[in-house]
UniProtKB/TrEMBL annotation:
SMART domains: AAA (SM00382). Residues 854-915 are annotated as: Disordered. This is ABC-type xenobiotic transporter. Its main location: membrane. The chain crosses the membrane at residues 16-35, 72-96, 102-123, 135-154, 174-192, 419-439, 445-464, 522-545, 944-966, 986-1016, 1176-1196. GO terms for cellular component: membrane. Residues 871-884 have a biased composition (Polar residues). The lineage of its organism: Eukaryota, Viridiplantae, Streptophyta, Embryophyta, Tracheophyta. Residues 620-843, 1284-1518 form the ABC transporter domain. Belongs to the ABC transporter superfamily. ABCC family. Conjugate transporter (TC 3.A.1.208) subfamily. Coiled coil: none annotated. Keywords: ATP-binding, Membrane, Nucleotide-binding, Repeat, Translocase, Transmembrane, Transmembrane helix, Transport.
Length: 1530
C-alpha cells in the first residue's frame, strides 16, 4: 500500500488528483446503487422497472421520443471510453517494451473503469425513460471537464516551452477527448437527457385539431418540416442542411411552397405562448407597478440567449490569439526560435484559432437572427391580440395606422436588438483581453490605454441621450404619417370623387417633412458619432505610445505592431459602440411604446355575462343599464336601460338619427363601457354591423367565416339572403375574390354577404344593425320574409331599422331618444300611445301617400318570378351562371360526390383566379435591374455625391496605410537597434496621419447621410405622387396592406439602411484595391492566389444570390398579408368579437407570421451559408501560406520589408487574422478575406436594394387621366344647364373582368331630377363612377353641356360635380375640416350648411363648435350623422350636377323627407341624379331610369311608367307600397 501511495505521489499533480477524484466518485456511485437496490428489495420491487412506454392502464398512449441530443451524449461517452482504452493500450505497450514505471497505468485504468460505468449509466436512462440524467452522473461530467481543462492548460504551457518533447499518449488523449467532455459538461449543466415521454390522453384527442394542423400545412403548400430541426452536428456546423433549397433555387426561382415549414419550437404560436405567459405573470405579481416588457422577453428567451452567448464568448477569446502570438511569430520569422518546431506549432495554433473563429461566428450570427425572429413573432402576436381587445377609449388614442406601426417598425427594432445583446458584456471582456496583451507589449502604458478607452466610452453618454430623443421624435412623426396614409388609402374613393386627393397628398408631404427633419438630425448626429469612434482607436493608440515613451519603455517594431494589432481588434467593438448606444436608445423607445400599448385598457370582460344555451328562457336581459362611450362625459350615451327578451322573440329598435340605436346593440355585445347595471345573453350571438365589414378573400370564405362547409345549409343561406341571382352575375360565382373592404360589391351585396355570414353561424341571438337600408324594396321584402321570418323563425332577433313597414310583425318595438328607451311595446300599442313612434310612422305614411300610384288589377302585379322573365336577357351571364348550377348539383349529390370531380373544380378555380380583380402581389424575378440602382444613385443631386464619397474613402484609405507604414518603418526592428526618428516626430507624424484619415471618414459619413436623405425623400415623394395619381382600379385591386408595407417598412429601409450599405460597399471595394496595390509591390507571387480564390468566390456568390434574392422578395411580399390582416381585423374588431371569433383570427395571424418567418429563416441561414464557405476558403489558404512560410530557412524574410507591408493590413476592418503573419500569409489571407467581404457586402446590398425595387414599382403605376389639361379647360361657368348625354356607354372594371354596363343610351335634361333605380347589382353605382371617371369606359361617351368629359382634366370634371356617396366617410380632424378641407368657405357658410343639413344644433351643443373632433373613420358620429355631413359638403359646394348614391339609406323616414325638401329647395335648378332603394325618394323625380343587368330597361317620367302595366318600375313601386302597408305576404 505504501508503495502504491509513493507511486501516486510521484505522478504529476493533475493525474494524481484525477485518480483520487475519480475513485471517490466511483465509490459514491457504488454506494448509491447499493442503497437503491436495498430499498427496492425491502419494498419487494424489482431493481429495473421495465415500464412499457407504449402502454398505460388508463388507455392513454405513452411514446418515448429519442432526440439527437441523447444520441450525441451516448456517442460522446463511448468516444471518451475508446480514447482512454487506446491510451491504456499504448501505456501497456510502453511498460512492456521500454520498461516504463507501472504507475503510468494508474490513470488510464481508473478512467477506463469510470467511463465503463458512466456509459452503462447513460444507456440505462433509455430503459427507464428518464427525462433528466441522474445528478451524480452530471456532477461527474462537470468534474471530468474541469480536470481536463486544468490538464490542457499545463500541457499547452509545457509544449510551448519544451516543444514536442512533452508530447505523450496522455497529453494527446486529453486534447482529443476535450471537445466531447465540453459537450457532456454542457449537457450536465442543462440536465435534460434528450429523452421525451409523450403521453396522449385518449379522451383529449380531437380529430378536428389534428385536421386543422394538416390544413395549416396544406395551406403552407408544403408538408416537409425544415431539416434544421433534426440535422446532425456536422450539418449544423456547416449549414449543409440548407443545400437542397439552394440547389433548387439555382435551378429555378423559388416560391413560398418550396420553403419548408419551421420546426414547432420556432413557430410563432410557441414563442407567443411563452412570452405572453411571462408578461401576464409579471402583471399579476405586482399590479400597482408597470411590468417590464424587456424583463418578460429576457425571462422567455434567456436560454437561447445564453446558448448564443457561449458562441459569442468563444469567438471573442479566439479572436485575440493572433495579436497575442504575433510578436513570437515575427521573432521566429526573423530567425529567433525559442523551442523546437516553433513555426509549425504557431502555424497550427493560428489555423485552429481561425477555424474556431469562423465556425463560432456563423453559429453566433445565426443564433441571434433566430432569437430576433422568435421575439418578433411573439411580440407581433401580442400586439395583434391586444388590438382585438382594445376598449373604445383606447381605440381613440391608437388608430389602426399607429398599431400597424407598432408591428411594422417597433417590433422589428426590438427583434433587431438581438444583434447587440452580447455587446454589453463582450466589450468589457475585449478590453480586459486587450489590456493583457498590451501589458506584454508596452508595459505599464496599458493603464493609460484603459483610461483612454473608458474616456472614449463615457464621452458617448450625452450623445446617446441626444440619439434617443431624436429617435423618439422620429417615431412619433412616422406614426402620424402612417396614421394619415392609412386613412387616405381607406377613403381614396371619396378623395377622388371630391377632387381632394392633391390636398391630402400635400398634408402627407407636410407630415413627411416633419419626419424628415428628425431623420436628418438623427443621421447627421450618427455621422458625428461615426467620426468620434473612428477617432477613438487612434486617440487610444496615441495616448498609449506617448505614455510608453514618457515612462522610458523601449518600443520595438514587434511590440508596436503587436500593440497596433490589438488596437485594431479593439477598434471593432469601440467602432460598434455608437451603433450599440443608438440601438439601445431606439430599442428603449420602441419597448416603451409597445409596453404602453400592451398595458392600455381592454374591453370589460364582465360587461356582458354569457350563459350557456338552455339555462334560461330569457335570451337577452339588461337591468338598470347605464353605458357611455367615454366615461368622462357628463351625459352617458345610454341610461336607464331595462330589457327582457324571451327566446324566439323578434325585437325592433327605432328612433331618429343619433338617438343611440347602434350603441344599444353595442351595449348588448359588451362593446360600449358599462357604468352600471347588468347585461346577460343566453347562448351564442351573431352581429351584423351597419357599415358592412367584408374581409378580403372570396365570397364563400366570407360567408363560412371559419365554419366547415355544409352544402345543403350553404344553399339555404344563399337563398335566404337573396344572393343566388347576384352570384350568377359574377363570372366566378361565390369564388369571386372581393377587393379591399368589399370594394367590388355594391352596398346591398355587402350587406347581404354580412347577413349570410351571420345566418351560416347558426347562433342563438342575432343582433342586426339596420340590415335592410342598403337594399331595394323588393330585395328588402324578400330578405325580411326569408331571413327574419323564416330562417330565423325560432331565433332571438334584435334589429335596428328605419323601415316602419316591417314593424307590425315584431313581438316588441323599442323607441329610443337621446340614449333612453322612451317607448316599448307591440306595434298597435305604440300607435295608440302616440308621441315619438307615431311621428316616425306618420312620416313614413306621408312618403307613401306622396306616391300617386294608379290602380290596377291584382293579376297585373305578378310575382317577382314573372318580373324576372320580363327582364332583358343578358347572354353574357349564361356561362357565369354555371357555377350556381354546379353548386346546386353538388348539393343534390350530397357528400357522396366524386373526389375526382372536386379536384377538377379546384383546378378550375385556380385557372379562374387569374382573371380575378385582386391578384397575388407582384414580384420581380431574377437579378435586380441596374435601372433600380441608377434610379437610386441619380435621385440625389443627379449622382454628383457618389464620386465625392469615393474620393473621401480613398483618401481615408491612403492615410490609414501611411500611418501604419510610418509606425512599422520608423521604429527599431529589435531591442538595441537605433530608431530612425525621434520619439516626438514619430508620435506627431502618426497622430497627423491617423487623425487626418478620421477627418475624411467624417466627410464620407456626412456625404453618405446627405445622399441617403435626399434620395430617400425623392423616392418617397415620387411613390406618394404616383400612388395618389393611380386610377381607382389600382386601389380596388390592391389591398391597403401592400401599399402600407411599402410606405412603412420599405421606406424605413431606404431612410436608415441603404445609404450606409452603399457606403460600406464602396469602402470595401476601395480597401480591396488598396490591398491588391500594395501587395503587388511587395510579393507579386502571392497574387496568384487571387485567381482561384476569386473564381470560387464568384461562383458561390452567383449560386447563393439565385436563391437569396428570391427569398428576400418573398419575405417582403409575406409581410403585406400580416399588415393587411392587422388593419382589417382592427376595423372589424366589433364583428369578430360579436361572433366570438377572436381565437380563429389569432390563429390566422400566427399562421401568417409563420409564412413570413419561413423565408426569413432560410434567408438568414443562406447568408451564413455563404459567409462560412468564404471564410473557410480564407482559412485553408491561410494555413497553406503559413506552412509554406515556416518551411523557409530562418532569416529568409526581411522583417523591415515585412513590417511596412503588413501594417497596411492592420488597418482593415476585420483583419486581426493577418496581423504580422508574414508577407505571403498576410496578403494571401487578407486579400481572400477582403474579397469575400466585398462579395458579401454586395449580396447584402442587393438584398436591401429590393426595398428600392418595390418602391420603384409603385413609382411607375400607370396614372389616371391628367387632373387638368392646359388647352381643354371648360368655361368657368360650366356646366350651366347640367344636361347629361350618355351614348352607347360600355364599362368593365378591368380587362380580364366581365362588362358591367352593356351600351347604355339616355339623356338627362339640365335642371331635372333623375331617379335611378334597379335591382341590386344592376349597374347603378357603376354608371355614377363612369360619370365621375373613376372608371374609364372602353366604348361610348358621356357629354355634359356639349363637352365630352373624357376630353377635359379630371379635377375640372370632378370639381364641378357634387356627390353624396353610399358609404358616408369622415376624416380624422374637425367637423369644419370635413366639410371644407380646401378651406374655400367662411365659417358663416359652414354654419349655414350645417343648419340646412340638420346638424347645426348638434354641433352647437358641443364645446368646441366647428372644431369638434372627428375620430378615425368618424367613429364618434353615427352613420346617419355622417351621411348628413356628406349632405353639408354638397350644400357648400353648390355644383350644378348633384349625385345622391343611396344618400338617405341610413336615416329614418322623417329625416329622409326633410332631406328631400332641402334638396328641392337648395338644388331646385340643378340636375340631381338620385340612386335609391326607397321609392318615395325617387317617385317625385322628373324622369326615372330603370337599369337591369347593365342595360337601360326603362327611361321615362314616373307617371308614364306607372301607367304602363308591364312597367318594371311599376312592379318596384307596387312591391314597396304593398310591403309598407300591412305586409300581406308576411
Amino acid at each position: 500500500m505504501g508503495t502504491l501511495l509513493r507511486a501516486l505521489r510521484d505522478l504529476p499533480l493533475v493525474e494524481a488528483s484525477s485518480i483520487c477524484i475519480t475513485l471517490a466518485l466511483l465509490l459514491v456511485f457504488i454506494i448509491d446503487i447499493s442503497a437503491r437496490r436495498l430499498l427496492l428489495c425491502l419494498r419487494r420491487g424489482p431493481f429495473f422497472k421495465h415500464d412499457s412506454v407504449g402502454n398505460s392502464s388508463s388507455g392513454d398512449t405513452r411514446e418515448l421520443q429519442v432526440t439527437i441530443g441523447y444520441k450525441f451524449s451516448v456517442l460522446c461517452c463511448f468516444f471518451v471510453l475508446i480514447v482512454h482504452v487506446s491510451v491504456l493500450v499504448l501505456d501497456v505497450v510502453g511498460v512492456a517494451k521500454e520498461r516504463n514505471e507501472i504507475s503510468v497505468l494508474f490513470s488510464p485504468v481508473t478512467e477506463v473503469v469510470a467511463w465503463l460505468v458512466l456509459c452503462a449509466s447513460v444507456v440505462r436512462c433509455n430503459y427507464t425513460s428518464a427525462e433528466k440524467f441522474p445528478l451524480l452522473l452530471r456532477l461527474w461530467w462537470v468534474v471530468g471537464f474541469l480536470i481536463c481543462l486544468w490538464a490542457l492548460f499545463i500541457d499547452s504551457r509545457e509544449i510551448l516551452v519544451n516543444g514536442s518533447n512533452h508530447l505523450s499518449s496522455h497529453v494527446v488523449g486529453n486534447f482529443v477527448s476535450a471537445p466531447a467532455l465540453a459537450f457532456l459538461c454542457f449537457v450536465a449543466l442543462r440536465g435534460v437527457s434528450g429523452l421525451r415521454v409523450i403521453t396522449t390522453h385518449s379522451h383529449l384527442l380531437d380529430p378536428m385539431l389534428v385536421e386543422d394542423e394538416a390544413e395549416e400545412e396544406e395551406k403552407a403548400g408544403c408538408l416537409s418540416v425544415t431539416s434544421y430541426s433534426d440535422a446532425g452536428l456536422f450539418s449544423l456546423a456547416t449549414l449543409s442542411w440548407l443545400n437542397p433549397l439552394l440547389s433548387l433555387g439555382a435551378k429555378r426561382p423559388l416560391d413560398l411552397k418550396d420553403i419548408p415549414l419551421l420546426a414547432p419550437k420556432d413557430r410563432a404560436k410557441t414563442n407567443y405562448r411563452i412570452l405572453n405567459f411571462n408578461w401576464e405573470k409579471l402583471k399579476a405579481e405586482n399590479p400597482s407597478k408597470p411590468p417590464s416588457l424587456a424583463w418578460a422577453i429576457l425571462k422567455s428567451f434567456w436560454k437561447e440567449a445564453a446558448c448564443n452567448a457561449v458562441f459569442a464568448g468563444l469567438n471573442t477569446l479566439v479572436s485575440y490569439v493572433g495579436p497575442y502570438l504575433v510578436n513570437d511569430f515575427v521573432n521566429y520569422l526573423g530567425g529567433k526560435e525559442t523551442y523546437p518546431h516553433e513555426g509549425y506549432i504557431l502555424a497550427g495554433i493560428f489555423f485552429a484559432a481561425k477555424l474556431a473563429e469562423t465556425l463560432t461566428t456563423r453559429q453566433w450570427y445565426l443564433g441571434v437572427d433566430i432569437l430576433g425572429m422568435h421575439v418578433r413573432s411573439a411580440l407581433t402576436a401580442m400586439v395583434y391580440r391586444k388590438g382585438l381587445k382594445l376598449s373604445s377609449i383606447t381605440k381613440q388614442n391608437h388608430t389602426s395606422g399607429e398599431i400597424v406601426n407598432y408591428m411594422a417598425v417597433d417590433v422589428q427594432r426590438v427583434g433587431d436588438y438581438s444583434w447587440y445583446l452580447h455587446d454589453m458584456w463582450m466589450l468589457p471582456l475585449q478590453i480586459v483581453l486587450a489590456l493583457g496583451i498590451l501589458y506584454r507589449s508596452v508595459g505599464m502604458a496599458a493603464v493609460a490605454t484603459l483610461a483612454a478607452t473608458v474616456f472614449s466610452i463615457i464621452a458617448t453618454i450625452p450623445l446617446a441621450k441626444v440619439q434617443e430623443d431624436y429617435q423618439d421624435k422620429l417615431m412619433s412623426a412616422k406614426d402620424e404619417r402612417m396614421r394619415k396614409t392609412s386613412e387616405c388609402l381607406r377613403n381614396m374613393r371619396i378623395l377622388k370623387l371630391q377632387a381632394w386627393e392633391d390636398r391630402y397628398r400635400v398634408v402627407l408631404e407636410g407630415m413627411r417633412s416633419t419626419e424628415f427633419r428628425w431623420l436628418r438630425k438623427a443621421l447627421y448626429s450618427q455621422a458625428f458619432i461615426t467620426f468620434i469612434f473612428w477617432s477613438s482607436p487612434i486617440f487610444v493608440a496615441a495616448i498609449t505610445f506617448a505614455t510608453a515613451i514618457g515612462l522610458g519603455t523601449q518600443l520595438t517594431a514587434g511590440g508596436v505592431l503587436s500593440a497596433l494589432a490589438t488596437f485594431r481588434i479593439l477598434q471593432e467593438p469601440l467602432r460598434n459602440f455608437p451603433d450599440l448606444v443608438s440601438m439601445m436608445a431606439q430599442t428603449k423607445v420602441s419597448l416603451d411604446r409597445i409596453s404602453g400599448f400592451l398595458q392600455e385598457e381592454e374591453l370589460q370582460e364582465d360587461a356582458t355575462i354569457i350563459l350557456s344555451q338552455g339555462m334560461t328562457e330569457t335570451s337577452v336581459e339588461i337591468k338598470d343599464g347605464c353605458f357611455s362611450w367615454d366615461p368622462s362625459w357628463v351625459r352617458p350615451t345610454l341610461f336607464d336601460i331595462h330589457l327582457n327578451v324571451k327566446r324566439g322573440m323578434r325585437v325592433a329598435v327605432c328612433g331618429v338619427v343619433g338617438s343611440g340605436k347602434s350603441s344599444f346593440l353595442s351595449c348588448i355585445l359588451g362593446e360600449i363601457p358599462k357604468i352600471s347595471g347588468e347585461v346577460r345573453i343566453c347562448g351564442s350571438a351573431a352581429y351584423v354591423s351597419q357599415s358592412a365589414w367584408i374581409q378580403s378573400g372570396n365570397i364563400e370564405e366570407n360567408i363560412l367565416f371559419g365554419s366547415p362547409m355544409d352544402k345543403a345549409k350553404y344553399k339555404n343561406v344563399i337563398h335566404a339572403c337573396s344572393l343566388k341571382r347576384d352570384l350568377e352575375l359574377f363570372s366566378h360565382g361565390d369564388q369571386t375574390i372581393i377587393g379591399d373592404r368589399g370594394i367590388n360589391l355594391s352596398g346591398g351585396q355587402k350587406q347581404r354577404v354580412q347577413l349570410a355570414r351571420a345566418l351560416y353561424q347558426d347562433a342563438d341571438v342575432y343582433l342586426l344593425d339596420d340590415p335592410f337600408s342598403a337594399v331595394d324594396a323588393h330585395t328588402g321584402s324578400e330578405l325580411f320574409k326569408e331571413y327574419i321570418l323564416t330562417a330565423l323563425a325560432d331565433k332571438t332577433v334584435i334589429f335596428v331599422t328605419h323601415q316602419v313597414e316591417f314593424l307590425p310583425t315584431t313581438d316588441l318595438i323599442l323607441v329610443l331618444r337621446d340614449g333612453q328607451i322612451i317607448q316599448s311595446g307591440k306595434y298597435e300599442e305604440l300607435l295608440q300611445a302616440g308621441t315619438d313612434f307615431l311621428s316616425l310612422v306618420s312620416a313614413h305614411h306621408e312618403a307613401i301617400e306622396a306616391m300617386d300610384i294608379p290602380s290596377h288589377s291584382s293579376e297585373d302585379s305578378d310575382s317577382h318570378h314573372g318580373l324576372d322573365q320580363s327582364l332583358p336577357h343578358n347572354p353574357k351571364s349564361n356561362a357565369s351562371s354555371s357555377n350556381i348550377e354546379i353548386l346546386a348539383k353538388e348539393v343534390q349529390e350530397g357528400p357522396s360526390g366524386s373526389n375526382q370531380k372536386a379536384t377538377k373544380e379546384k383546378k378550375k378555380a385556380k385557372r379562374l383566379r387569374k382573371k380575378q380583380l385582386v391578384q397575388e402581389e407582384e414580384r420581380v424575378r431574377g437579378r435586380v435591374s441596374m435601372k433600380v440602382y441608377w434610379s437610386y444613385m441619380a435621385a440625389a443631386y443627379k449622382g454628383l455625391l457618389i464620386p465625392l464619397i469615393i474620393i473621401a474613402q480613398t483618401l481615408f484609405q491612403f492615410l490609414q496605410i501611411a500611418s501604419n507604414w510610418w509606425m512599422a518603418w520608423a521604429n527599431p526592428q529589435t531591442e538595441g537597434d537605433q530608431a530612425k526618428v525621434s520619439s516626438t516626430v514619430l508620435l506627431l507624424v502618426f497622430i497627423a496621419l491617423a487623425f487626418g484619415s478620421s477627418v475624411f471618414i467624417f466627410v464620407r459619413a456626412i456625404l453618405v447621410a446627405t445622399f441617403g436623405l435626399v434620395a430617400a425623400q425623392k423616392l418617397f415623394l415620387n411613390m406618394l405622387r404616383s400612388v395618389f395619381r393611380a386610377p381607382m382600379s389600382f386601389f380596388d385591386s390592391t389591398p391597403a396592406g401592400r401599399i402600407l408595407n411599402r410606405v412603412s417598412i420599405d421606406q424605413s429601409v431606404v431612410d436608415l439602411d441603404i445609404p450606409f450599405r452603399l457606403g460600406g460597399f464602396a469602402s470595401t471595394t476601395i480597401q480591396l484595391i488598396g490591398i491588391v496595390g500594395v501587395m503587388t509591390n511587395v510579393t507579386w507571387q502571392v497574387f496568384l492566389l487571387v485567381i482561384p480564390t476569386g473564381i470560387a468566390c464568384l461562383w458561390m456568390q452567383k449560386y447563393y444570390m439565385a436563391s437569396s434574392r428570391e427569398l428576400v422578395r418573398i419575405v417582403s411580399i409575406q409581410k403585406s398579408p400580416i399588415i393587411h390582416l392587422f388593419g382589417e381585423s382592427i376595423a372589424g374588431a366589433a364583428t369578430i368579437r360579436g361572433f366570438g371569433q377572436e381565437k380563429r383570427f389569432m390563429k390566422r395571424n400566427l399562421y401568417l407570421l409563420d409564412c413570413f418567418a419561413r423565408p426569413f429563416f432560410c434567408s438568414i441561414a443562406a447568408i451564413e451559408w455563404l459567409c462560412l464557405r468564404m471564410e473557410l476558403l480564407s482559412t485553408f489558404v491561410f494555413a497553406f501560406c503559413m506552412i509554406l512560410l515556416v518551411s523557409f530557412p530562418h532569416g529568409t524574410i526581411d522583417p523591415s520589408k515585412f513590417f511596412s507591408s503588413s501594417s497596411l493590413l492592420y488597418r482593415s476592418l476585420e483583419s486581426y487574422l493577418s496581423c504580422m503573419a508574414g508577407l505571403a500569409v498576410t496578403y494571401g489571407l487578407n486579400l481572400n478575406a477582403r474579397l469575400s467581404r466585398w462579395i458579401l457586402s454586395f449580396c447584402k446590398l442587393e438584398n436591401k436594394i429590393i426595398s428600392i425595387e418595390r418602391i420603384y414599382q409603385y413609382s411607375q403605376i400607370p396614372s389616371e387621366a391628367p387632373t387638368f389639361i392646359e388647352d381643354a379647360h371648360p368655361p368657368p361657368s360650366w356646366p350651366e344647364n347640367g344636361a347629361i348625354e350618355i351614348n352607347n356607354l360600355k364599362v368593365r372594371y378591368g380587362e380580364n373582368l366581365p362588362t358591367v354596363l352593356h351600351g347604355v343610351n339616355c339623356v338627362f335634361p339640365g335642371g331635372k331630377k333623375i331617379g335611378i333605380v334597379g335591382r341590386t347589382g344592376s349597374g347603378k353605382s357603376t354608371l355614377i363612377q363612369a360619370l365621375f371617371r373613376l372608371i374609364e369606359p372602353y366604348a361610348g361617351q358621356i357629354i355634359i353641356d356639349g363637352i365630352d368629359i373624357s376630353s377635359i382634366g379630371l379635377h375640372d370634371l370632378r370639381g364641378r360635380l357634387s356627390i353624396i356617396p353610399q358609404d358616408p366617410t369622415l376624416f380624422e380632424g374637425t367637423i369644419r375640416g370635413n366639410l371644407d378641407p380646401l378651406e374655400e368657405h367662411t365659417d358663416q357658410d359652414v354654419w349655414q350648411a350645417l343648419d340646412k343639413s340638420q346638424l347645426g344644433d348638434i354641433v352647437r351643443a358641443k364645446d368646441q363648435k366647428l372644431d369638434t373632433p372627428v375620430l378615425e373613420n368618424g367613429d364618434n358620429w353615427s352613420v346617419g350623422q355622417r351621411q348628413l355631413v356628406s349632405l353639408g359638403r354638397a350644400l357648400l359646394k353648390q355644383a350644378r350636377i348633384l349625385v345622391l348614391d343611396e344618400a338617405t339609406a341610413s336615416v329614418d323616414s322623417a329625416t329622409d323627407n326633410l332631406i328631400q325638401k332641402i334638396l328641392r329647395t337648395e338644388f331646385g335648378d340643378c340636375t340631381v341624379c338620385t340612386i335609391a332603394h326607397r321609392i318615395p325618394t325617387v317617385i317625385d323625380s322628373d324622369l326615372v331610369l330603370v337599369l337591369s343587368d347593365g342595360l337601360v330597361a326603362e327611361f321615362d317620367t314616373p307617371t308614364r311608367l306607372l301607367e304602363d302595366k308591364s312597367s318594371m318600375f311599376l312592379r318596384l313601386v307596387t312591391e314597396y307600397s304593398s310591403r309598407s302597408s300591412g305586409i300581406p305576404d308576411f
